[in-house]
Amino acid sequence: MRIGELAARTGVSVRSLRYYEEQHLLPAVRSSGGHRHYPEPAVHRVALIQHLFSAGLSSRTIGELMVHIDAGVSTPEARSRLIAERDRIERQMTELAEARDRLNEVIEVSYDPDAGCSFRPGPA
Amino acid sequence: MRIGELAARTGVSVRSLRYYEEQHLLPAVRSSGGHRHYPEPAVHRVALIQHLFSAGLSSRTIGELMVHIDAGVSTPEARSRLIAERDRIERQMTELAEARDRLNEVIEVSYDPDAGCSFRPGPA
DNA sequence: CTTGAATCTTCCATCAATGTCAGGTTCTAG
DNA sequence: CTAGAACCTGACATTGATGGAAGATTCAAG
Questions:
Q1: Domain limits of chain A?
Q2: pLDDT digits (tens, 9 = 90+) for A64-109
Q3: From the record, what ranges are coiled-coil (chains A, B) (predicted)?
Q4: Which of B44, B54, B56, B101 has its CA 20 to 30 A from that of B94?
Q5: What is the CATH class of A3-109?
Q6: How many helices (H) and strands (E) does chain A have?
């Protein structure tokens, strides 16, 4: 399929798809005239890329993972790279949970104005 | 305390602390000569700011939350703002979990090369 | 063929947090 | 008082994903 259709089907802008190619995340075959053509599985691949992007991975990191994935992830090095990245994501989740808890503290205190503490300068 | 000490105690760069002030996240009182001075609770406040930053909140958003927090978060609007932000964080956590699961799929497949599928072009 | 839609490439712009450098001022220990 | 450390402001650079415009070319449908 062509880039416009892929964009429509994935919800990713044409601009971004070209960027993904530039970053070696998403190869495309070219027509004689130079237009990009994608195989059906590209839809799935873009979805994966998007997931990794929204998990905060950089295009560089995603590119490295993709190399491993495309190669079949057979080597122990590749596997440990993937595992490392997964662990990084889990650490990030912990971080988020922390932030959420902090916000919850603030929210709960807001129901009980007498409970002081906190970071605010305050008159005391 | 002065900015250098606050930086040392929080692990945040002096540059960033100045930026936080500029963004109205972290007020400072000024000495007659113009040097910033921070009260003890600033340490805690910086920690909170850092948590929110690493949760992906923008300085703009953090600033808005801080206003509510400093005001005592009494109004329903303030509370719903905080709750909305907490929910956004939880959605982000879901996103991360999704990405982690995707990676885990890839990792598991890597132990069992015959299990095909996936996004890679492949000779088939 | 012709024509209009889709694509191509190449730039330049943006946003946000932070780094860094320069040149000047303040603070503090001796 | 004085030297040197710490601080001040202001400016510019950076990184990364994306947006957007311009001008040329290709594709597909009639």
A1: 3-109
A2: 888 888 877 568 888 888 898 899 899 889 889 988 998 898 888 7
A3: 79-109
A4: B44
A5: mainly alpha
A6: 5, 2
